[in-house]
Structures are given as C-alpha cells and as structure tokens.
Amino acid sequence: MQRTLIAALALAASASLSAQEVAVQAGGLRVHEQKESSFSAGYSYTHPVNEHLALSLAYLNEGHPSEHHRDGVAGEAWLRSRPNRPGWSFGAGVGAYYYFDTTDLHQGAYTNDHGWAPIWSLQATYHYADSRWYNQLQMNRISPRGKDSTTSVMAAVGYQFNGVKGDKLHLDGPSSDDTLSLFAGQGITNSLSSERARVTALEYRRAIGRYVDWTVTAIDEGKRVRGQRNGAATQLWLIRSLNPKVELGMGAGPYFNVKVPEGEGQRSHKAGLVSIASRYHLARRIVAELSWSRVVTDYHRDADLLLLGAGYSF
User: For this UniProt entry, which residues form the secretion signal (predicted)?
Assistant: First the structure.
C-alpha cells in the first residue's frame, strides 16, 4: 500500500494532461464496528492520465466518533467515464490511506496510532456546461486491519483549472528557485482535548527539479500544557502548478527535536513531518503560502501545525 501511494504521488507530478481538479468535500461517516455516526470532510487534488484514468491525492478527516479521532492522506487510481463533458460522469477508485488515529485510553490517557489501510471509492460528478465548476458525490470505504472500518458519503464543490504543463512555471531556469519564508500560526495537539499553542517557523525552500522542492524548516511549537517542542525539519516536496501563480504541494521528511513534550513510552528526539501547502506568487519574488503539517511521533504527542506565511525568492 505504501508503494501505491508513492506511485500515485510520482505519477501525479509528471502526468501530462492538463485538466487539474481541486475539490472540497463534506458529509457524514459511519463507524461499522461501533455502530456510530460522525461527520467527515476532505480536500482532494485529481489529475487525469488519459480520458478514463486519473490519479488523486486527498486529505480525509474521519470525524470525532467516541474514543477515536482519525484522519489521514490517501492516494488513489481512478477509472472514470466522460470526465470532461457536460452532464454526469462516474468513477471508481482504489488506493492506499495512511492514517493518524488518536485513541482514548480513559482516565485522561490516549495514544496516537499510525498505519496503512486500503481505501475504495465511488464517485458521481455533474459538470456544468460552459463552466469549470462541478458538483460531486463521493463514497469512501476504509478498512484498517485490527481497527474500526468506516464508510463516508460526502458532497463536494470542485473546480477544473486552466490547462498548464504542471511544472514550476515561475522559474526562469529548470532548477533554480530559492525562497526564504517566515510563518506564524497555531499548533493543535492530537489529544482528545486538542490543546492549542502559537507556532512560528522559518523555512528555506529550493527547487531541485521542475516538480520537486526541498525545504529546511526551523519550528517553534510554543508552550502547551504538556510541555514545549521545537526543532528543525527537512522535507522533499512534489509540486504541481495549477496556473502561473498558484502551486499545490505535498511534502514529507524527518523532524529533529531540540526539546520534546512530556509523553509516555519512548522519549525520542526524532519525529516525522507530513505537509500539504498552497503557494501563491504575488509578484516575481514575493510568495504567500498556507500550509497544514502533521507532526508524527513515536511517543504519542502528534500535532497539527496550521501556518500562514510570506517569502522572498532570490
């Protein structure tokens, strides 16, 4: 399943067709083993490989059923009918889902579990004539081994962007782009009470290919009830341009901590960082960026980092 997601990432970065689609989803979810319902939400990027085959990357939030808060990132391959014509089209997708699950152990204790699961999806999409906007209904089935399986049904609003090759169109050369950015935002601990703190970060970003960026980021996660964490992360990113000003990217890499918060189990100073970001080029050398990052730990102190920043390219 890991290989499926990696392959989807790589192919989405290099696919040549141009009808790139971005959708925002919301709906309901059913936890089968617990016979319980909750909300679901998501954000997806889809790129066609040919008329009937597409690849997608998505962030999914599986709501807040009792004793579990689970979300994750998914990569899927799709078979679709009539995807770029007015009227209805239909699709079926299958892929891999990497999940983050906050589980209640009672008496104030919890765990942050991580793992892979298969995901199956069905989709019905209505395309409007003479418009790039579309509406969509999607069903997802997620079945982790030894965990609760879920079925979600979500309605979506999506947009097809103008066709571009997809590489970093703002570059003068094929592999030279250095940006220094300053960020501020909020950190949310992945506990059942979701403690919050102010977060700041300083990032150096370099394009090492027309679809690949490399970053080094200094992060201060601020003070929380359970302690303080800061350190430095390095990530590799797959980048797609939606038009000459807008980029979407997904990155992952190690996060080395100078300080770690209080936590049960292994007190490692290493963690992982998984990120999704949208960048907007305000001018030739000025870029704004909005990002979500998940800190993945082995000592049950995962966190979300929601950051907004601005950078200067040189």
Answer: 1-19
What's the domain count of the chain? Answer: 2
Please enumerate in sequence order all residues whose Cβ is within 8 A of that of 132, keeping only pairs 6 or more positions apart, or say none. 159, 160, 161
- 72-131 pLDDT, tens per residue? 999 999 999 976 788 999 999 999 999 999 988 877 788 999 999 999 999 999 999 989
Is residue 296 included in any domain, yes or no? yes
**Same domain for 121 and 183?**
no
CA 49 to the chain's CA centroid? 21
Task: Write the pLDDT tens digit of every residue in 279-301.
Answer: 999 988 899 999 999 999 988 88
Q: What are the tokens at 276?
A: 């999704």
- 173 is a domain residue: no
User: What 3 state SS string does 237-265 have?
Assistant: EEEEECCCCEEEEEEEEEEEEEECCCCCC
